[in-house]
Each structure stands twice: as structure tokens, then as C-alpha cells.
Amino acid sequence: MCCGVKRRFLLLYATQKGQAKAIAEEIWQQAGTHGFEADIHCISEMDKYNLETEKDPVVIVISTTGTGDPPDTARKFVKKIQDTTLPPDHFSHLQYGLLGLGDSEYTFFCNGGKTVDRRLQELGAQHFYDTGLADDCVGLELVVDPWIDGLWPALEKAFLLQKEKEGMSSDAVSSSLSTAPHVGHELNLSSEVQNLKLEDERVRSSDILTQKLVDIHLVASTRDTEPSLVHSVPPVSQSALNIPALSPEYIEVQFQDTHGENPHLSSLISEGTTFEVPVTKAVQLTREDAIKTALLLELDIADTVFDYQPGDAFCVLCPNNVNEVKELLQILGLSDKGEHFVCIKVKQGTKKKGATHPQHIPERSTLKFILTWCLEIRAVPKKAFLRALVECTSDAGEKRRLQELCSRQGASDYTRFIRDSNVCLLDLLHAFPSCKPSLNLLIEHIPKLQARSYSVSSSNLYQPGKLCFVFNIVEFPACPTRPVSRKGVCTGWLAELVAPLLLPNKNTLETKGGSSSAEKIVIFARPNNTFHLPADPSIPFVMVGPGTGISPFIGFLQHRQKLREEHPDWEFGETWLFFGCRHQDRDYLFKDELRCFLENGTLTHLKVCFSRDSSTAEVAPPKYVQDVIRLYAKEVARVLLKERGYFYICGDKKHMADGVSDAVVDILSTEMEVDKLKAMKILAMLREAKRYLQDVWS
């Protein structure tokens, strides 16, 4: 620990779902043990810091959302630094290090961080530490942990250079070095531990814990050779553990009476205006024996000012499953408190830097409302949450296993048994029954319940006052780490909500008695700035949308049909649609509608494939859209290159969109007679020109 005054650096985070904030708080926690003081702020709190006059090093942790956008909390900051009137030396005094978070499943990986990094460089700022880009697809910790480890020596060097610039003598510099902590120094506690109680404050604050296991519950039997969520094997079970520092508690919960009303759902949303609209139609698009169940819902927006274009997305506010909320209350021993209003305050004297009332929790609401509408109880617990749960666990074996799962040594177990298995808090509480967390701990660590985004599957021009969307009911089957099967939070809720609208033996039903008797949902707009039809209707375009990926293209085609009817004198470019599904007779979505579009000329070319249907043909037909696209290489190349057309992809990223991109690269390479590297550069140029557009999910 540094003997003198701790050296300050500014720590900014920009988060969408809480990941960047949690990592920034981990940096803040570790800073003190390395002789630094982190001045931590959300990047949106621009009244609390000033980069124009900042003299100390700056560390930025920033995530990416949507199709490569900075998180909502960074929008004002990004807009400010993108001011074109700023001179190229505007931030020439600034030294910074940036950690970007993203998911390589998406095209614009870590683009939020890259955007800020690039702009700061353009304005003269200098790196004191190399930029890190962490990938949630393989596990953020693979980059985050070593990046944080390397941050401390980089800060040391930055402060030394700063002192040299200030004219310090070499003796003073040496003195500064001698009092700084040795990077990589580990506190080794090698005593044998039987019950693993972390009551000593020195151990509690350390991030190193060495334990020799003698507890009988942790000795692996000859049969227990495979690790699981609750069981570890060597080397993890016998390792000294590097565990995260324990985050200080900062929330205080007080129960009040049962009188009053919960806030309106609109108060939970800061992104824009919300609209409560009725569901006026529900259609099951797939047959009962289809592997996935796809539903189409129609919303009545006639009495609202909600507006959209084909290709836009919108968000649905959804609650957690009522039975899961009930189960959680029961495990917490709070079943009798569900209808009680709670008052949440910041704990007096908390050691948490900049502790504030969580913005997603109302000032006054019932406990059941908070667990139902405010907290993402299905969220995969972060390691900091697991670390906090250790302190609430009484059984020694369970405590050790939770420590392993949040440690560096247990990183692969965390990925396998928690992250990849989509384990949530309820699963953990069942697996570790001696873990009894407090309500304030849950509010501190469970992130905000996010609204779910869906692509619009209609045209306001074609169906005025209506908005349609399509989704598969997401299914999570039971597995060793999750003893019960579950449906998706939003898709499961929507399916249950509209079940009465689906008559037996009939897939559609107009609600009787008008929209007044219909179920209502709360939505808000999430416009897509690029995934739209070409402004010039004469430009041709290609659409690739297997499965529910066809959703936005139904809106495209409805819009195009209406334009053709209203403007018979206009010139319209040709339209291609590549669609695929498993079985032609089970999950061929919008089959009749597509045939109509084809017959009336709105759709010029329809190419379909069915991956699970058997064929008696001598040459088996292609199974996937990327294979069909290759059969039309010359036509695709002509549309993209000669006619400067557009190419749209919607659907699964990993198993489809990447394959389509590979097919397009091969087509460009063959038709232009260039190597693959050159073809990839051409595709990148098409992306940059917003003529190769994706709306994909993982």
C-alpha cells in the first residue's frame, strides 16, 4: 500500500445492462490496494468531471448496444465529442486507457468503444495504455482480467512520466517507485481452513485466498470425477483462489404498509415515450408439430402518435414470470411481504464510491412490483454477485464452490456451468440451499429488467393504425444446472397473454367487442436508422430472412405493394427474397402472403429451401439460404455491383448471417476475379456505404 497520498485517476463507465459499471467498480475496488484512487463516474454525469481540463489519467470502460451503437448513457458524451468544430488538439493534454465490451456474434464488435477511442485520438488524446476489447461471446473475463492486471503498471508509468514532465529529479522518481506497490505481489494465506469463514477483515479485503481443503464435504469420491455447478475437481478444488474484492453494501431496505398504488409502467422507461396498446389479433404461424412455435401479434396503434417505418424495431415492457417471483419470495422468506411497499435508501456511511439510488427502482413501490417489473431475475449472475453470495452461505462446501466459481482459477467452470448454461439466481439458490441473501443484496447486484426488442413486421402505409411483429416462443429445456424448463421472459409472457385469442382449430381471431376488451401491452419506439428500404424505389434489393428473420421483409413488401398501387407511373427495382425453414408443411411462415406478393409483381424472385425435408431427387436440393444464394451468384453480383443495389440480412447471426457473408465474399471473389482478401474489403465497403445491412441476433 502506498504510504503517502494516493494518486488519482478519473474512471468513467458507459453501460447498457450493467456490465461496464460492474467492471468499473471492480477497478475502483482494486485501485486502493495498488496505491491509486479512482474518481468513478457514469459517463453521462458530465457535470461531475471535465475532460477539457482533466490533468490526471483517464480510464474508460464502455459497452456496445444495438447494431454497434454506444450505450444510451454515452449518447450525450459521444454527441459532444463528435462536434465537428472541435480542433484536432482539443484533447492533446489527455492521457487515457479504454476497455471496450462487445460480442463478436455481431458485425460491429465493440463499436461503442471503438467510436469513442477513434474520436479521442482524432482530437489529440494519447493512450497511456493499450485499448482492450473484451468479447462476451467467449467470456469477457478472458480480456478484462489481464487488462485490469496490466492497468496498474501502466498507471505507474503514466504518473512517473507526468512527474518527469513536472521537472521532478530522478531521486524523487526513485522514491516514488519505492513506495508504490509491487505489481503482481500476492498475499499468501497458507493456513489450513476447515470451515472457510472469512471473518478476518484482512482476509476479507484481500483478493487472494489460499485454502487447503480438509472439509469432508469437499473431498471428491472416486465416482465424482466430473465437475458440475456444485462440485469441483482438481486442480480447481485444490487451488489457491484469486477471488474478487467484496463490493461494499450500499442499499438499505425498509418495509412499509400495504396502502397505496404502484407507479405506472411508463415511469420505468427513460428512453422515450411509452404507449399502452391493445393486442387485436394473434396468429400461430407454425403447425403444432413444428420444432419451434412462431406467433404473429397485431397491435392497435390508431389512437396513439406512435410512428414507424418498415425495418424499424420497437421495445416491449415485460414482467418476470409470476411463479418465479413467487418462488423467489418464498426462498427469501418474504412471502408475506410481497404486497408491502418498500422504501429504498442509500446506506449511511457506505464505503461504495458515488453510491446512489438505483434509477430503475421506483422511490416507492411494493416488493412484488420490484421483483416483477424492475429486476432481471433471470440474469446470469456476475462474478461480483457470486462473491457477495459467498458471505450469505453457511455451508462450508457450498461456500468454497461459490468462491471457486467467481475466482480466476474457476473461470472455465464459471463459463461452462453458469454463463453458457444460462443459470439464474433461482437456479443458484436451489443448487446452494444454505445461501440466504438479503433483499438489499439482490437490489444491489441484479441488473435492470430490460425491455425486449422486436422487428416490425408490417407497414403503416399498408395497414394504417396497425403494428405487427413475429417471434418464436423461446424454450430453455431442463438440464443438470437447471432442473426445470423455462420459456423466454417476454415470449413466454406474450404467449400466455394471447392464448385466449387463439381459438381451437383456428389460428386467428379478431377480438370481440373491439380493443377495449383486449389485453394491452406497453411499448416504445426503437427506430433503426439504417435498416430501411432504399430511398429510391428503382434501386433493386436482396432480402435474406430464414425463419422469423422474414419478419421485417413482410413490412418491406407490404410497403412496396402499396407504393406500386399508389404510383403506377414509378419505376421499381427488382426484389429478391431468400427464405428457409425446417419443413415446408410445418414452419413455412407467410407462405400464402409471399405467393400473393409474387403473383402481383411486388416480389420478383422467391427462392426457398427446407433443411429437414427429405428429397428423392438425384441431386439433393440446398438446405440453407447461404447455399441457395451461391446458386444465384451472377444475379447477386449484378444487383450489388452493376446496379448498386442493397442486400439485407435478418435472423440468426452465428448459424446463418456469417454463412451468408461467406457466400457473398465467395461470389464477389469469383465474379470479380479477385482473391478473397480483396472480396472481403469490397464487402466491408458495402457495409460502410450502408448497402449491406444486417438485423441479427445471437
Q: How much of the polypeptide forms β-strand, as a percent range?
A: 15-25%
The CATH architecture term of one domain is 3-Layer(aba) Sandwich
Number of strands: 24
Structural category is alpha/beta
Look up the CATH topology of one domain: Rossmann fold
Rg (C-alpha, Å): 28 Å
Largest sheet: 6 strands, parallel
Q: What is the CATH superfamily classification of one domain?
A: Nucleotide-binding domain of ferredoxin-NADP reductase (FNR) module
**Residues in helices, as a percent range:** 25-40%
End-to-end CA span: 44 Å
- Structure annotation, total helices: 20
Mean pLDDT over all positions: 87
GO biological process, one term: methionine biosynthetic process
Main location: cytoplasm
GO cellular component, one term: cytosol
GO molecular function, one term: [methionine synthase] reductase (NADPH) activity
